[in-house]
Write a sequence for this structure.
């Protein structure tokens, strides 16, 4: 008997939960989950390059499908054109996992600049740039529930890297990660707030260390698996508030996370800066967006992140401008 889509997805979730997991990199976590889903026989797991986009080049059992089952597609898309073709062939459904960041490339994060912009502008796509395997696990399980049990339209996209940053997540962390951001230490004070996504989070963590050791500046750390989801929800709340001026105002996860604090916010991505810039409109504090090309061709280094934080504090009159100059010299950025 062929299981219904929702039942198949629930069986997939059960299989993943029963299999357990060890903390690993985002890439290895997805590979392990793919193996479990294949063994369950309740999901389509496709492993291949996005260059093989014709349905005829896919497994016959997928090309001749008669009912939808959960889809996990492991691919390597370099450009928005490749990703657009791939999402079209999958009817803009499924969980698409891109490992291009693990391969040699002249592009930051292995992707042409058009790819993250296409993701951010595609209303059918919920894009994530997870930093850890724990985040990946939470996102894939949420994707199975949202797309196939709840039956909501669209597809999930995950950018994968192979750095093993083991950060244990509480249940609250998992829920907040799905919404776009969560604190690495809850209720921790900070002179500045540092946000990071994907592989760039490690440089943010090291920037916090530099600020503390070299300049006696404390920093809150936030992991942001989806800047795009944060910006979309904040924009939707703002639009609703404009259309309903007499109703109680709606908030957003971004505003709730950063409310009640005037400390500068430094948001870092391995993609180009336009991926984080939309957040500025919804942050009630000094906001600095950093991405590939902002201060150097690649993703911002820990030294540039630290200097950017010091510069934001100086512009708010909280430290002397001379400290920024000293930091530039100390880190050989001049």
């Amino acid at each position: 008997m062929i299981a219904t889509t929702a039942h198949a997805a629930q069986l997939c979730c059960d299989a993943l939960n029963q299999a357990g997991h060890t903390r690993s990199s985002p890439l290895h976590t997805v590979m392990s989950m793919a193996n479990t889903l294949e063994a369950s026989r309740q999901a389509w797991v496709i492993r291949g390059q996005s260059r093989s986009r014709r349905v005829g080049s896919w497994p016959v059992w997928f090309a001749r499908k008669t009912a939808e089952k959960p889809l996990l597609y492991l691919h390597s898309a370099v450009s928005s054109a490749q990703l657009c073709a791939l999402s079209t062939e999958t009817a803009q459904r499924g969980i698409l996992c891109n490992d291009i960041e693990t391969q040699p490339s002249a592009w930051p994060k292995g992707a042409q600049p058009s790819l993250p912009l296409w993701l951010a502008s595609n209303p059918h796509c919920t894009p994530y740039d997870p930093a850890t395997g724990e985040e990946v696990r939470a996102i894939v399980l949420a994707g199975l529930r949202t797309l196939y049990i709840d039956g909501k339209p669209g597809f999930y996209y995950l950018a994968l890297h192979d750095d093993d940053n083991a950060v244990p997540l509480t249940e609250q962390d998992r829920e907040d990660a799905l919404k776009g951001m969560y604190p690495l230490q809850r209720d921790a004070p900070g002179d500045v707030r540092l946000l990071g996504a994907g592989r760039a989070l490690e440089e943010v963590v090291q920037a916090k260390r530099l600020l503390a050791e070299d300049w006696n500046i404390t920093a809150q750390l936030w992991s942001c698996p989806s800047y795009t989801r944060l910006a979309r929800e904040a924009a939707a709340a703002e639009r609703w508030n404009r259309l309903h001026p007499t109703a109680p105002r709606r908030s957003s996860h971004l505003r709730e996370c950063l409310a009640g604090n005037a400390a500068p916010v430094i948001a870092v991505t391995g993609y180009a800066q336009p991926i984080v810039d939309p957040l500025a409109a919804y942050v009630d504090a000094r906001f600095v967006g950093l991405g590939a090309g902002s201060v150097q061709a690649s993703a911002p280094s820990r030294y540039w992140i630290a200097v950017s934080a010091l510069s934001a504090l100086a512009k708010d009159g909280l430290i002397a401008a001379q400290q920024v100059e000293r930091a530039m010299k100390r880190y050989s950025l001049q």
Remarks:
- The radius of gyration is 21 Å.
- The longest helix spans residues 133-149.
- Residues 180-330 form a domain with the Rossmann fold fold (CATH 3.40.50.920).
